[in-house]
Write a structure and sequence with these properties.
One of its GO terms (molecular function) is DNA binding. Residues 17-131 form the Response regulatory domain. Pfam families: Response_reg. With 187 residues, the chain is of the alpha/beta class. The protein folds into 2 domains: 3-128, Rossmann fold (3-Layer(aba) Sandwich); 144-182, Homeodomain-like (Arc Repressor Mutant, subunit A, Orthogonal Bundle), CATH 1.10.10.60. The protein is built from 8 helices and 7 strands. Helix 4 (99-108) links the parallel strand 6 (89-94) and strand 7 (110-115). Helix 2 (48-57) runs parallel beside helix 3 (74-84), helix 4 (99-108) packs across helix 6 and helix 6 packs across helix 7 (163-169). The chain is globular and about 50 Å long. The model is unreliable at 1-8 (pLDDT under 50).
């Protein structure tokens, strides 16, 4: 499908092309179906390589990109989209949310950063949010475990994802750090 196949939604503008990138096939299929129902012309990709190929063929106006993919980092897809289409509205979607990667994603050009599980309504709202709309602050503050985890993630990003250097800077055993990085973020 091409963007011309859809009637122009006033929130989407003239080009409603949407690239969805996630390696969770059932989630990707459900999200693609839901976003098509909201007026997007959806192209799906399950890997960084597939997504970058799709961007080379046609840079989308909108994108929802998973941060961690089987063959790499979703931030590489964000960069590829930004190079071809600076005005694209890109959202990072991940189950491994942390402040450091959110900041990196925004610096690369993402407009929002959503943690999984996010439903199609949340994603649509984030894609179509204007500058005047503000996201409500969280009702529950971060736990001490979450603050610690965020700090570790920030140092890890500062060290360009080098586990050995991060462990040295945090005065932590490398294997302990690897175990922490492999787990999901605490609530």
């Amino acid at each position: 499908m091409t963007p011309e196949d859809f009637a122009a939604d006033p929130l989407l503008g003239d080009d409603a092309s949407l690239l969805l990138v996630d390696d969770d096939k059932p989630f990707l299929t459900r999200l693609a179906r839901a976003m098509e129902g909201r007026g997007f012309a959806v192209v799906s990709a399950e890997s960084v390589e597939e997504a970058v190929g799709a961007v080379k063929h046609h840079a989308p106006a909108y994108a929802v990109v998973d941060l961690r993919l089987a063959d790499g980092n979703g931030l590489d897809v964000v960069s590829a989209i930004r190079d071809k289409r600076p005005d694209a509205r890109i959202i990072i979607l991940t189950g491994y949310g942390n402040i450091a990667t959110a900041v990196t994603a925004v610096k690369l050009g993402a407009i929002d950063y959503l943690s999984k599980p996010a439903d199609a309504d949340d994603i649509y709202a984030a894609l179509t949010r204007t500058g005047d709309d503000r996201v409500a602050p969280p009702e529950n503050p971060m736990s001490a475990d979450r603050v610690r985890w965020e700090h570790i993630q920030r140092v890890y990003e500062m060290c360009e994802r080098n586990v050995s250097e991060t462990a040295r800077r945090l005065n932590m055993h490398r294997r302990t750090l690897q175990r922490i990085l492999a787990k999901r973020a605490p609530r």
